Every structure is written in structure tokens, then in C-alpha cells.
Amino acid sequence: MSPKGWAAFAAMSLIWGVPYLFIKVAVDDGVSPVFLSFARVAIGAALLLALAWRAGVLGQLRGHWRWIAAYAVVEITLPFPLIAAGEQYVSSSLTAILIASVPLIVALLAIRFDAAERATGLRAVGLLIGFAGVIVLVGIDVAGNADELLGAALILLASCGYAAAPMILKRKLGGVDGRAAMGASLLVASALLALPAALTAPAEAPTTDAVASIVVLGLICTALALVVFQFLILEVGPGRALVITYLNPVVAVALGVLILDESLGAGAVAGLLLILAGSWLSTDGRMPPGMRRTRVVPA
């Protein structure tokens, strides 16, 4: 990867490691999943569209609205509320670990939709290892608790959207400025979520922690993240861009344990290790050239 690609990769690994903490704070404080999703999306849309207008790139959206809408539904409108709803029943740490299955789903979808991302040989083995990790995680830590099973199912369903969306972006929106494309996608998602958000709006003003969480989710984890993510996908491809999910759960688990006092069961630890190993193999199974040349010098 290029230096710019590595910089985007590092930024996304951190930026998308923190939203699970803020989502958990907001939903635990009584903010509904749909209202939370609408609020963060509306904030992100307002910021990005303003930046796109100022840069004079909104004209690039002409002829792309059908795919903007498709991307908005698959990447934002469905996954955001699903994840927030799932976090009503499971921890932020478990959520991040389940989202780490996204590269595995990309490999499955690629069998039909993207020859460049197809998993064969060692990558196919990684696919099996990764899904074994999901089974271990759900079978040991979640099985027997109906609410947690529901939460895990909602999060895995959201993961399917996260896996499909980059393929739409790569094929249909690659030539559109990131501020315009992502701003328009967030605008579409805002419109689709507006009515259900109004019906589930909090009866009382959200707590300060909840409001702060929504603002961070909107500005950093949505607006900034989607622009950087588009650049990363176009730079390295969907499968390798989603390698950020190797590091996201590590960040999320650390925050969940340190700030929310969450604990990890044996199934979560084993599942995380298997999912990360499987994802690594299913997206390449080897270090990028620049890293292979790097040598560690003892202090």
C-alpha cells in the first residue's frame, strides 16, 4: 500500500474502533436505536454537504443518485439501527468482535459479485476458520440467552450490509468526490430514518453523556470516517480496506473493558482470535510488501 493508504488505514482502525463505546453509552441512557442513527447521520450529512458545496463538487452527483441511494441503504440506513439495537442486548466488545466477521462476508459475496476479491486456496481456509470463530463465540458466550442471541443476530445482519456496501462504492461511485458521495448518502439515509426516528424520539432530553456520544458519532465516526473509508477502498480495494476490522475490535474491547467495565468470556476470546486469523487469511494471508521489507531492530 502507498503511504497515503497506510495513513488512511491507521486512521480508520482507530476511528471505527470507538463508535461501539459511544453507541452503548447512548442506548443505555435511553436513546432509541433509530433516533440515535438518525441524529448521527443528520449531523454527518450537514457537515459533509456543506464541505462539498464549498468545494464545488456537488455537481459530480449527477447520474449517480440511484447508486448513492443503494449505498445509503446498505451501508447506513440498515446497519446503523441494527447495531444500535443489538447493543441493547450485548456488550460493545462483543459487538466489535462480531463486526470483525465483515471481511469473511466480503469473501463470500465475492464468489458471485467480484472476481478480484474471491477467496481460493489459503484464503478459502481462512474463510472457514473465521466462521468457526463466529460459531465458537455465539455457541459459548451467547447460546442459551435469547436476548443476547437476538442482539448477535442483528449485528451479524448489519455486518452483511457493511460487506456489500464497499462493492457498490468501488464499482459505481469511485469517480465521485468523497465529501459529495458520502454527504449525499447520509442525506438519503437521514430522509429514510426521519419518520421512524420521530416516532421513537426520547420523551425527555437525553443526558449529557448521550448528547456527547451522538455528536462524536456524527462528526468523527460518521462524517470523517466515511470520507476516509472511501479513499481507503479506492486505494486498496474492498477486501483489504476491511482489514481495519482486525484492529477495530482490539480498540473497542480495550475501551469496553477500561471504560465500561465489560468482561470477556472464553468464547469471546477464542472467537476473536479465530475470526481475526480467518479474516487475515481470507484477505491475503501475507504481509503487504512494504511491511515485509521492514525489519525490527532490537533496542
Automatic annotation (TrEMBL):
<feature type="domain" description="EamA">
    <location>
        <begin position="7"/>
        <end position="138"/>
    </location>
</feature>
<keyword id="KW-0472">Membrane</keyword>
<dbReference type="Pfam" id="PF00892">
    <property type="entry name" value="EamA"/>
</dbReference>
<feature type="domain" description="EamA">
    <location>
        <begin position="150"/>
        <end position="282"/>
    </location>
</feature>
<feature type="transmembrane region" description="Helical">
    <location>
        <begin position="211"/>
        <end position="234"/>
    </location>
</feature>
<feature type="transmembrane region" description="Helical">
    <location>
        <begin position="266"/>
        <end position="283"/>
    </location>
</feature>
<feature type="transmembrane region" description="Helical">
    <location>
        <begin position="7"/>
        <end position="27"/>
    </location>
</feature>
<dbReference type="InterPro" id="IPR050638">
    <property type="entry name" value="AA-Vitamin_Transporters"/>
</dbReference>
<protein>
    <submittedName>
        <fullName>Threonine/homoserine efflux transporter RhtA</fullName>
    </submittedName>
</protein>
<dbReference type="GO" id="GO:0016020">
    <property type="term" value="C:membrane"/>
</dbReference>
<feature type="transmembrane region" description="Helical">
    <location>
        <begin position="65"/>
        <end position="83"/>
    </location>
</feature>
<dbReference type="InterPro" id="IPR037185">
    <property type="entry name" value="EmrE-like"/>
</dbReference>
<dbReference type="InterPro" id="IPR000620">
    <property type="entry name" value="EamA_dom"/>
</dbReference>
<keyword id="KW-1133">Transmembrane helix</keyword>
<feature type="transmembrane region" description="Helical">
    <location>
        <begin position="89"/>
        <end position="110"/>
    </location>
</feature>
<feature type="transmembrane region" description="Helical">
    <location>
        <begin position="241"/>
        <end position="260"/>
    </location>
</feature>
<keyword id="KW-0812">Transmembrane</keyword>
<feature type="transmembrane region" description="Helical">
    <location>
        <begin position="122"/>
        <end position="143"/>
    </location>
</feature>
<comment type="similarity">
    <text>Belongs to the EamA transporter family.</text>
</comment>
<feature type="transmembrane region" description="Helical">
    <location>
        <begin position="181"/>
        <end position="199"/>
    </location>
</feature>
<feature type="transmembrane region" description="Helical">
    <location>
        <begin position="33"/>
        <end position="53"/>
    </location>
</feature>
<feature type="transmembrane region" description="Helical">
    <location>
        <begin position="149"/>
        <end position="169"/>
    </location>
</feature>
